[in-house]
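Deliverable D5.2: sample structural annotation.
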Amino acid sequence: MTLERLGPEQVDLVPELRVFTPPAPVIDKRVYSPWLGSDLRTLLAQRCCDTVIVTGCTTSGCVRATIVDAFSSGFLTLVPEDGVGDQAQGPHDANLLDCQRRYCEVTTTDACIEYLRRRAAA
């Protein structure tokens, strides 16, 4: 999945999350996990972040790599089930279940937005 094939409108944040950027930064990644080859850890540490929300494709590839690396870096990791997908339902379900048991909290986009609102109000 590349910008050349899809176009920027297909990989943009949904409007409900876009309202948080800025001040929240958006990191575009070049490999499976945005934790590799970027300053993501530093950026989050500078902002005293302890939570990340992971969305995207493919649950059995990029999404899983991102979740595992976020967990390994000590972050609470939220994954909106309606914000991730895979080419086939079987691998998607298996990876999401495995990640939920080990690395993250699987939730919904609405729950993530509510979480962000509560954190912003605190």
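Annotation notes: The helical segments are 3-6, 15-18, 40-46, 59-72, 89-102, 109-121. The CA atoms of residues 13 and 19 lie 9 Å apart.
The annotation will be released with the project's public dataset once the embargo ends.
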